[in-house]
Amino acid sequence: MNIAASSASPPSRAADERAGRTRRHARGFDQHLILLAAALGLLGYLTIPPILTVFYASLQSDFLGDESRWTLSHYVELFGTAVHQGIILNSLIYAGGTMAFATFNGAALAFLFVRTDVPLKRFLFVLGMLPMLVPSLLNSFAYIFLMSPQVGLLNHLVGGLTGLRPFDIYSLPGMVFVQGLHMAPIAFAILVGIFRSMNLTLEEAAAMSGASDFLAFRRITLRLAMPGLASAGLLIFIETVASFEVPNLIGVPGGITVFVSEIYDSLKRYPSDMSGAASLSTLVMALSMAAIWFSARLRRQGERFATITGKGFRPRPLALGRGRIPALVFILFYVLFSVVLPIAVLSWVSLLPGYEPPSLDAFAKVSFDNYVRLAAIPRILPSLVNSLEVTLSAATIVMAITTIAAYVVVKTRWSWRGVVEALAFIPIAVPGTILGVSVLFWYLTAPLPFSLYGTLTLMIIAFVTLYLPHGIRFMIPAFVQVGREMEEAALMSGGSWRHAMVRVYAPLLGPSIVGGFLFVFVLSFREISASVFLYAQGTELFSLTLFDLWREGLFGPVSALGIAMMCCFGVIVGLGRRFVIQPGGVS
Q1: Contacts of residue 125, Cβ cutoff 8 Å, sequence gap at least 6
Q2: Who contacts 192 (Cβ-Cβ below 8 Å, separation ≥6)?
Q3: Which residue, 35, 62, 197, 254, has most beta carbons within 10 Å?
Q4: pLDDT at residue 310 in the model
Q5: Within 10 Å of residue 34's Cβ, how many Cβ atoms?
Q6: What is the pLDDT of residue 494?
Q7: What CA–CA distance (Å, rounded) separates 482 from 508?
């Protein structure tokens, strides 16, 4: 009997272990199924209904009107009238010019940084990304002070020497120049990786065949980089075609109307033309989605030109020789116009009771009165509190959603996990301005038992939707780096899936979560393109208060607020970077 009992014991234990594993896998399966359904449902709700609502509104004669009917008249007017054809042409010139100017600057800086012995190379990556420190709204303010035909500081200096005022910021070239400088870091960040990953065997072979450095660059390097150049350019095009700040601050005073300024005017005039704004918004979305599709196609084709092999290689710096001086001059001019001059002129204006060019009389008026005066402007503190509430909430929700979505995409084998990833990336094809219009239209018609119009909750929803692609970009690579066996070990030890997420994944993913949180926080705090269509009295955000104070002519306080805002961003980014890259910084 003892022998029989002992012989039956191991199968019994094995059966118990199999049953335990089955129960745990069943619980995991149910949890994953619930997780997938929740992720799909939430992502689908955030992204699909607003977009479809805008398209629906564009096909209505009078959106939200009692007698509205189906019609294509808004599209006929959009493409058939000289006024709207001019708007389309201006928009394409503005976005296309910005794309070319920004991509050229970013690509040149990236090539100099990665592939040459240019001076200041140690600092070039930081210098290339510095313009991101200056929000687009403040950058536009600064260049109005610098290049306004009447009072621009640069026109004043050149006019004192030559009697001419050559700069006119209120023009299409002026818009392209300001937006292009601000967008160049996007191209720089993308192309640094492209140039760094190139195998130089082909260039060396060309040199051995007697080709000059310039010929090798033009015939080999440039062609290999073309998919990356096109992707960067198309992303800049998407960002520019729906940018709010430059078209409204620089284009409108110059009589130049583009998509965004016409959409804004259509919704803010009385009576508002919602269907007309919806048709323009649909056109912008179509252009953006076409650019995204074309960029993806180029990226797939670019795989045929992959030059990284299994053999190690180290890029050989290209000796610039006499070209070192022109390259250094280009870098210095880029930094001067993209960072130094904007910050310097905002600092100067913030110290004066009213804007005036530097002079002995002006220096006598320098004080910190505008900084002290900020405490006496009652709108600033409530808008700051609103912005903190919205941005902190949006950043938290974005990272929570994208952490779950990234887990579903990377760590599960669900056949629909690709749909989760696609839904999280959809908002990247819907620029901020259009997303604001989409969310507004959806929540004006959504069958909800309560109204969200004009509330901070509506802005949080818009910001969450807008920045989902940024969060998912942080979290998918982070999950890829964590092996699945660690989760399996936690489950085999009797832990639940929730236990594995909290005790295994959270500590390992902490730096990525914090980095994504800070990135979304900074971007959403300075966001104005979406919020300008969603706010009501009492729910203004900080960026909207800056915009309103500028329109009221309070240039000194606006500049003081801008300088304070950039200092805070610098501290937040510096502390966040130190926290994220510090080993063991997240427990």
Answers
A1: 113, 192
A2: 110, 113, 114, 125, 128
A3: 35
A4: 44
A5: 10
A6: 59
A7: 8
Residue 239 has pLDDT above 60, yes or no: yes
Mean pLDDT of 520-535: 88
In this prediction, residue 89 carries a pLDDT of: 95
Give φ, ψ of 116 to 5 degrees.
-130, 175
Q: If you average pLDDT over each of 153-162, 175-184, 208-217, 318-327, which comes out highest?
A: 175-184
Q: 371 is written with which tokens?
A: 């900084």
CA–CA dist 506, 398 (Å, integer):
16
The DSSP result for 527-573, as a single string, is --TTGGGT--TT---HHHHHHHHHHTT-HHHHHHHHHHHHHHHHHHH
pTM: 0.83
| Digit-coded pLDDT (tens) for 468-505 | 988 888 888 888 877 666 666 666 665 556 666 666 67
- Please name the helix (run of DSSP H) or strand (run of DSSP E) that holds residue 150, with its range, or none: none
Distance CA(334)–CA(347), nearest Å, equals 19
CA distance 301 to 309: 18
Residue 400 makes CB contacts below 8 A (sequence gap 6+) with none
Kindly state the average pLDDT of the residues 436-465: 90
As a three-state string, the secondary structure of 302-349 is: HHHHCCCCCCCCCCCCECCHHHHHHHHHHHHHHHHHHHHHHHHHHHHH
Same CATH topology for 27-58+377-551 and 73-372: the answer is yes
Beta-bridge partners for 318:
116
Calpha distance 377→537 (Å, rounded): 16
Q: Return the half-sphere exposure (C-beta side, CA atoms, 13 A cut-off) of residue 172.
A: 14
For residue 47, what are its two tokens?
Answer: 């992204």
Q: Classify each residue of 281-308 as buried b or exposed e, where b means 16 or more C-beta atoms within 10 Å of its C-beta.
A: bbbbbebbbebbeebeebeeebeeeeee
Report pLDDT for 90.
95
Does the structure show a pLDDT above 60 at 257?
A: yes
pLDDT at 309: 45
Q: Greater confidence, 491 or 449?
A: 449
Q: What residues contact 240, with CB distance under 8 A and at least 6 apart?
A: 94, 95, 98, 99, 179, 183
- For 196, half-sphere exposure in the C-beta direction (CA atoms, 13 angstrom radius) is 11
Q: Which of 451, 499, 511 lies closest to 475 in space, CA to CA?
A: 511
- Give CATH superfamily name and number for 73-372: MetI-like (1.10.3720.10)
Q: Architecture of 27-58+377-551 per CATH?
A: Orthogonal Bundle (1.10)
How far apart, in whole angstroms, are the C-alpha atoms of residue 489 and residue 484? Answer: 9
Residue 3 tokens read as 């022998």
Lowest mean pLDDT, pick from 227-241, 381-395, 474-488: 474-488
SS3 275: helix
The angle subtended at Cα 143 by Cα 428 and Cα 557, nearest 5°, is 95
Question: How far apart are alpha carbons 581 and 577 in whole angstroms?
Answer: 6
Domain ranges (residues) in the chain: 27-58+377-551, 73-372
Phi, psi of 60 (to 5 degrees): -105, 145
